[in-house]
Every structure is written in structure tokens, then in C-alpha cells.
Amino acid sequence: MTSAETHEQQDTAPPFPPPAEITYSGQYSVNPLAEVSFRRMCAQIPKVLRRIARLSWRTDRRAVQLLLGCQVITGVSAAVLLTATAEAMEPILSEDAVADRLRSALPALMVVALAAALSRGAGSVATYAERRITPRLTTETDSAVVEAVCRVEAAAYAVDGFSDRQEAAEMGVIRTHVMVTDAQRFMSALIRMITAGGVLSVLNVLMLPLLLLAVLPAGVGAVLTARVDYETHYANVADRNVRGMMRWWATTSKYGDEVRANSMTDYLTYWYRALSDRCDRRTLAAAPRTLRISLLSSLAGGFFLVAVWGALAWLAVSGRIDLAVAATAVVAVQTTLAALSQVVINGAAVFHTSLYLGDMQSFLDDAADRAPQRGPRTVTGPVEEITLEEAVYQYPGKDKPAVDGVSLTLRRGEILAIVGANGSGKSTLTRLITGIYLPDKGKVAWNGTDLTEVAPATVWANTGLVPQIFAQWPLRVRENITLGQPRTHDDTPVWEAVDAVGLREAVDDLPAGLDTLLARDIFGGSELSGGLWQRVACSRALYRKPGLLILDEPTSQMDPRGEHGIFEQIKAIAADRITIVVTHRLENTKIADHIIVMEHGRITEQGSYDDLIHAGGTFAELLELSQDR
Ligand SMILES: Nc1ncnc2c1ncn2[C@@H]1O[C@H](COP(=O)(O)OP(=O)(O)OP(=O)(O)O)[C@@H](O)[C@H]1O
Q1: What is the DSSP pairing of strand 548-552 with strand 578-582?
Q2: Which of 398, 431, 580 maximizes ligand 1 atoms within 8 Å of its Cβ, making it the mutation to test the pocket?
Q3: CA 395 to centroid of ligand 1, rounded, Å
Q4: Residues lining ligand 1, judged by CB closer than 6 Å?
Q5: Which of 127, 486, 494, 599 could form a disulfide with 604 if both were Cys (CB 3.0 to 4.6 A apart)?
Q6: Is 440 helix (H, G, I), strand (E, B) or coil?
Q7: Cα 143 to Cα 191: distance, rounded to the nearest angstrom
């Protein structure tokens, strides 16, 4: 094709398709705030304050005690400050000589100065205490979310909305950065408001309700705005989740070659921007609503504020309160007003936080419910036999089972090969055998014990799995091999595992041998080739010396020498364990004692290699195709 033709084709090509509309359905697609009344929303604030206090208490008791002490000092100093101001006003506004007025007011003024200093000091110490709590609280909640996800039954990943709820929970973690600050500011403003309001009520009983009316619209406005923000956030959760995943895929150096050499950059950046624009559109669509809320609440607040000052002026001018009291009232009104505004702003922030914390908590609760609850029995001793009886497994949302009534017996010392077309259920079958998934129907038993009754950790202590797609951990070579096993100071078994997969030369070539960090992106890190990574994954499984060894396409990226070495090794250690090899390279199944052929989730043929090549079935056909070049 000439370059002119290429250009012409590009000119006439249809525009990029926009990202798919991502909406998940089911119970989690409903915004939990949609039906909630304003009163119920406000009622959440004390609840969330208690939760923040509980979380903080668990994180750092002394800092919480310090924080509470500071709150008390703030409140007391606010009351002392106002009372002393009232005392100072009387002599200051009297008819005496200036020097006498100042002398008489001096003790009260000194109390004012001391109370102000105390209040400021308490504020600074409270900030210090809050800074001690916040980072650890964030780490606690963040780690709780990570741990919860790692500990759920693997089947939970396929449940509708699980990953979006995880994304929503992440927002709760982010909010923990500001939640103690918000709660602390809310509490100290509340205390200042109560004390200043109390003093004000003593001066004139009418003032407090008027002041409340002046700030209440701002409070209502702030809570309603938080509600709108949350609605937008909720509508964007699924898109943000996918955008986050795509961001990682598009920017991680592992896929950099593919992105560049296949000229994917334009579409990926367009896609990313289009999804961001979609989120922005939802956010912008909400802006007029928040503007309306803000304007209306300011208008109502302004009206009542004018009424407050008007009332104060009227009380003073009509002689209902004397000038000294009026002057103190001005200070009290200012203090109460500032405190009330802070209460309202921080109260709304606490409410806003409560929404995200609620999501986080409900995700953690859901994840706890999805943690394995299988039974207390354990797998002890060597794995002698694994049996499957009519095992069926269907992924959520799928209309056909991935494994559909498989019966099988595996005995120690045997090698089983599983073959079959893509999507025929091979990997799912291995997940059932290892107990990663429990069958919907039928039974999987290890040494005669049904896996539904066995604590899964005791099963997985006996398994070694090389999955088709394995993780390339950004850890040192040593940890990449020993990951999942108890730590040991002795490198001998690590080197044995390295030698078993023919990796010694490559490890010796690395700058720091077993201590080399296998992460190209990190300073000082190194990278391995695809085949060498696959050898690392195999050595990880062999290092475990498992009772059940499962290798799902373990050598797909290896050179023939490497592949031969691995299969020799599998044969050499097969006597002590059950071994399963999933492969499309049918030649490799020669090492197996027994081969099963899967089609549409069922076993359609089985036998030894020689049986199957002469049976004239799918196996023989696939083998012939693989040799037809
Ligand atoms: N996590 C999952 N969620 C939903 N469906 C899945 C999941 N994993 C696999 N499936 C579906 O289950 C069926 C069997 O998949 P499985 O991965 O077990 O096949 P396989 O034989 O190992 O395929 P391959 O040879 O391509 O590795 C397929 O229809 C697949 O789409």
C-alpha cells in the first residue's frame, strides 16, 4: 500500500468510538441518598463523629485525650473571654477619667488576654494531636481495605458491582485525610458556639434564636451541596473505576512496547480524555443546582443577619440594654456567628465525609461477609487423593456453567494433563481443584474431606500454582521465589529452586544476584525477559514443595531448552505429589499418566497419550492440526 493510500484510508476512517457506557445494575446501582430525608442526613453527623472518635481512639489514645483536653480549654477560654470582656466594658464605658477607667478595667483585660492566649495555644496543640492521628488512621483504613479485598473468596471478584464498591471505598480512605480535622474543627466550633451563645443569651434572650436563623440557611445549603456532590460522585464511580484501571494499563512501562508499536497512544489518550470529559459533564451539570442552593441560602442568611444587627441596635438605642452590655453583645454576636459558621461548614464536611465513610464501611462489611466461611477442618499430612464428583461452577452473570459436571480422581504420584479449546473450562477446573472456587453443585474433596468444610489456608499451604497470567512482583529475586512461604535465613533451598528451572546463570548475571530488585521502573531495579519471568514463577511453585502442583501453560514463553528442563523437573519430582499440567502444546502431555480433554466445561475424552492419539477424537484432531505446518 502506498503512503498516499494509507493517508486516504486514514482520512475516510470512522472517528474513534467513545468509551462504552458503564452502568452496573442490581442493588448497588441505587444511590443510597436518593430517598434519604434532610433530617436523616443531619442525624448521621453524631453517628459519624462517634465513629471517627472510635477509629481515632484505636489509633492513638493519647492524641485523642490531648485533643479532648484542648477542646475543653477552648470552650472554657471562650466563656472566660466573653465574661471578662463584659466586665472590662463597664469601667471602660463609664464617665471616669481615662486613666481610672483603664486601671479599673486592667484585671479583666488581663484575663481576656490570658483566655485568648490559652485558646490559641489549645488550638495549636489540637492541630498537633490531629496530625498525630490522621496519618496512622489513613494507613489503618487503607490497609483494612487492601486486606479485606485480599481475603475475600475469589468468587467475589466476579460479583456485580464489587469492584465499583471497592472504588467507592477508596474514596472513604481518601476522606480520612481530612476527617479528623473536620471533626476537631466542628467540635471546637460547637463548644465555642455553645459558650458564646450562652453568654449572649444571658445578655438578651432574643439574640440566640435570631443568630441561629442567620446561620441555619448556610447549614442547610452546605448539607444540600454535599448531597449534590455525593450524587455526582456516585454517578461517576463506575467510570472512575474503569478510568483508573485504564490509566494503569496505558502508563505502566510493562505494556509500553505494545502501546507504541501498535500506535495505540492516540486512541488511549482520546479514550481517557473522553471518559474524564464524561465525568466532568456530570459534575458541571450539577453546578447550577449548587449555585441555586448557595444563592438562596446566602439570601436567607443575609436577611436574618440584618435582623440580628437591627435587633441589637434597637435594644441599645431604645435603652433596653445599656451601652456596656451592647458592646459585649457585639463581641458575643461576632464570636457566636463565627463559631456557628464554623459549626455549619465543618458539620457539612463531617456529613460529606460520613457518606464516603459509609461506603467504605459497607464495603468492609460486605468483604467480611464474603471472606471464606467454610468450616474448621484442616488438611493434614500429604495430599494422597483429590476427588471431584459431578462438580459444576458457573460465573455470576454467565448463562452456562464454565465447568459442567466434572468427575475425576487424582492420586499422589500421578501427572494429569488438561487440554481443550480456549474457554473450555480448563483454568476454572484447576480453580475448583485448588479450592479457590467452591463448586455450585457437586463436590471436591481432598483426602476424602469436602473442601466446603476445610479452612482454605490449610488447603493452600499444600498447593503450588503457576497460573497462565502470573504476577511479576516488584520485589527482589529472593522474595519473588519465596513469596508466600515462611522466611528463612538459608538461601540453599532458594538456589535449589533456581537451579530446578535453569535460572542460575540469569540470576548470576543480575547486578546483585538474589538481592536484585525485579522492577525496571524503580531506581536500581532490573528487568527479566518474559521466559525468564516464567522460570521465576515456576521456581516459586517448586520452592513450596507442594502436595498439589498446578502448572497452567507454564512454558509458553520459554525456549525449547528451558521447556525441556521444566518438564524433566516435573517428572523427577512427580512421585511425591499430584501434578496437573494445563497446556495447548499437546506434545507436552506425553509426560502425563492421564489426559483429559475439555469441551464446553465437560470432559469429552480421557486416557493416556497413546490411547488418545489412536482414538480419532478431538485430541487426535488437535494434535494433527498442531503438526500441520
Ligand atoms: N473471572 C471470570 N468471570 C467470568 N467468566 C469467566 C471468568 N474466567 C473465565 N470465565 C469464563 O468461563 C469460561 C471458561 O474459562 P476458562 O478460563 O476456564 O477457560 P480455559 O479453558 O482455561 O481457556 P484458555 O484455554 O483460553 O485459557 C469461559 O467462557 C470464560 O469466558
Answers
A1: parallel
A2: 398
A3: 9
A4: 158, 395, 398, 402, 420, 422-428, 468
A5: 599
A6: coil
A7: 34
Parse the chain into domains and list their residue ranges: 42-369, 385-627
Judged by DSSP in three states, 50 sits in helix
Q: Residue 606: beta bridge partners?
A: 596
What does the pLDDT look like over 145-184, one tens digit per residue?
A: 999 999 999 988 888 788 888 888 888 898 888 888 888 8
Question: Is residue 26 exposed (0-12), middle (13-18) or buried (19+ Cβ within 10 Å)?
Answer: exposed
CATH fold of 385-627 reads Rossmann fold (3.40.50)
Q: Which residue lies with its CA nearest to atom 5 of ligand 1?
A: 395
> What's the gap in Å between 550 CA and the centre of ligand 1?
17
ipTM of the predicted structure?
Answer: 0.97
What string of DSSP letters covers 234-246? HHHHHHHHHHHHH
What residue's CA is closest to ligand 1, atom 28?
423
pLDDT category at 408 given cuts 50, 70, 90 is very high
Out of 1.20.1560.10, 1.10.3720.10, 3.10.410.10, 2.60.120.200, select the CATH number for domain 42-369: 1.20.1560.10
In angstroms, the first-to-last Cα distance of the chain is: 28
Question: 233's torsion region: left (phi>0), alpha (psi -120 to 50) or beta?
Answer: alpha
Atom of ligand 1 nearest to the CA of 601: 14
- Tell me the pLDDT tens digit for each residue of 424-478: 999 999 999 999 999 999 999 999 999 999 999 999 999 999 998 898 898 999 9
